[in-house]
Amino acid sequence: MNFNQNHQMIFAKNIWNKITVFFLFFFFALAGNAQILEPVKWSSKIEKKGNNAVLIFDGTIEKDWHMYSQFTPEGGPLALEIVFKNQKGNYELIGKAKEGKTRTAFNDVFGVNETFFEGKAHIEQEIKIINPNLKTVDVDFDFQVCKDVCINSNKKFSIAVPSTFKMEEVPVIAPAQLDETKRTGLAIDTVKKEAEVTKDQKVKAETEKEINEEIPAPAPARSLWSIFFIAFLSGFAALLTPCVFPMIPMTVSFFTKQSKSRAKGIRNAIIYGFSIIAIYVILGLIVTKIFGADALNALSTDVWFNLIFFVILIIFATSFLGAFEIMLPNSWANKADQQADKGGIIGILFMALALAIVSFSCTGPIVGTLLVEAASNGGIAPIVGMLGFSSALALPFMLFALFPGWLNSLPKSGGWLNTVKVVLGFLELALAFKFLSNADLVLQLHFLEREVFIAIWIAIFAALTLYLFGKITLPHDSPLQHISVGRLYLGLLTLVFTMYLIPGLWGAPLKLISAFPPPPQYSESPFGVGGSGNSGLSTDVKGLPEGAELGPHGIMVFHDYEDGLAYAKEIHKPIMLDFTGYACVNCRKMENNVWSEPTILPILKNDVVLISLYVDDKRELPKEEQFVTAAGDKIITVGDKWTDFMISKYKTNTQPLYVITDLEGNNLHTSKPTISYVSAAEYLKWLKEGIANFK
């Protein structure tokens, strides 16, 4: 089959701009199940800025869809690419295109923090016009939009340049010169020109106000409640460290004994608790105000930041394990203690500050990690995180002041506190390598690939298991004659987790920790250490047919339709077309979570011929294979070819898209010709139906 021929009906990517909405609905009613989606509607304009001009692009994004920013890092989804077609000799770019509000969130499929627009996309590019005869500025946008499916789209802009934009600024004419200039008409032109500028400025100001009002504030990747809950648990963990726990009975006793009445002691303890909360919330507020949500988002994806934080966490983990103590200067604590002696509310506030300073060696790494993780969510997440952490830290002081009898049931300080600190040290050590992995992924150095990362985690949690079982002792541990039941259970839990990690070396997906290790494709071998990935495959790996390779989970896959079709005819098996993309998040999710199912994987390996066609493949087609569609779109790259095939044949432009066909290219499904991002159960039912129809 030659796909360079014009098909009966070719839908171009920008079809919504070429026919009316009524005709579309009418056609889709006849066509059936599929449709061309265009979740982003664009508008453009040009405004004057001094001697320069500003190109403004506004996109309205449909609900639940998001479009990736030009600043989304490599290794993740497809970033926005802006191409200025007629720049040479006509105009110069002033800096890089600026974007409106975006949101940044971690993508556990690609292992990077992706940046994207929601609701509105606003982009500005300042230019200096150097050709006075320039008529238009031609710009192309290549971008990806995702919801349950992903769409790779292209938008072409041709913005007319008003003649007034190419004139030099005319000086303001003084009133005394008006009579003289009337004879030349210069004053009239100047007044008109200045009126136009004033009007333009007013329109621009109103437009900017509307944009600021319409673009929604970035929502956090996690809900604020989940951030609060995680931070609260972290605060509880910090509470059980030797830096904080012994302070509870000492501080509560101080309030109850030194106060003139029990009521006053309770009041002081409550003020003390709220002072702790205030100190940490103010810390979160300062971090947010100094850096701002956007800067923190950018910082969390920065290579140097991740490397620096990796080193910091290694140092803190080493301290937790007992190599040395990290403490803030004693003078800080002494000054806080001196202020606390003054009494009153101010004195109580400084007592809380003294606690924060003295306990820094235990709380510092936890607070730092929380701030970094919350900051990547943007908005008020750092403040919410600090509120949750400090609430857990302050709660015991207030409760034991209200019920001082409980102090008698409080466990005595001892070696178990150091055990808690050591466990936190192991966890900090494991987390440190996540930051190192982020830097490695962004730089694509392949120093810390998936197998190496998992091996490091296995070593860390195996060592933690041995420590909990008493087989390893560290510098500050008390003599251990037996282990407690709680320590035994925790040791068993870490042992199970360590055993769970081991199959990851052989290609197991490790879905419980999918957000931490690098993605499966970022590995020395896609099939794990020593694995061929060929389990259950009927074809010998060494004798793969021409054009085939081993894909996800060892499935034999073709990336060219003609090669796959020829092989399917040779072995007489149905074809499963997989329209996918290198930067398609939901495509990877389907491969990782659905294709890996034990009921589905054997079918994909043995009962169909898989042809995966990448619509974002940027390799250029040979000149003789390039063509122009009936709609006027140029088919230049391999991705263009498969996009045109998908649109013209199946009347849709979404990925992932799965189709099962016979050897003549006819669809084997009647009720549901194509399928996309669905559950494993629905996917399995669809697979079996298509194969049964072929037989």
UniProtKB/TrEMBL annotation:
Chief site of localization: membrane
InterPro entries assigned: Cyt_c_assmbl_TM_dom, DsbDN, Thioredoxin-like_sf
Residue span(s) of domain Cytochrome C biogenesis protein transmembrane: 225-437
Source organism per UniProt: Flavobacterium soyae
Domain Thiol:disulfide interchange protein DsbD N-terminal stretches: 45-158
Gene3D superfamilies, per database record: Glutaredoxin
Name of this protein: Cytochrome c biogenesis protein CcdA
Record PANTHER family: THIOL:DISULFIDE INTERCHANGE PROTEIN DSBD
Protein's UniProt keywords contain Transmembrane: yes
Membrane topology (UniProt): Multi-pass membrane protein
Keyword list, A-Z: Cytochrome c-type biogenesis, Membrane, Transmembrane, Transmembrane helix
Localization per Swiss-Prot or TrEMBL: Membrane
Membrane-spanning ranges: 224-248, 269-291, 303-324, 345-367, 379-403, 415-433, 453-474, 486-506
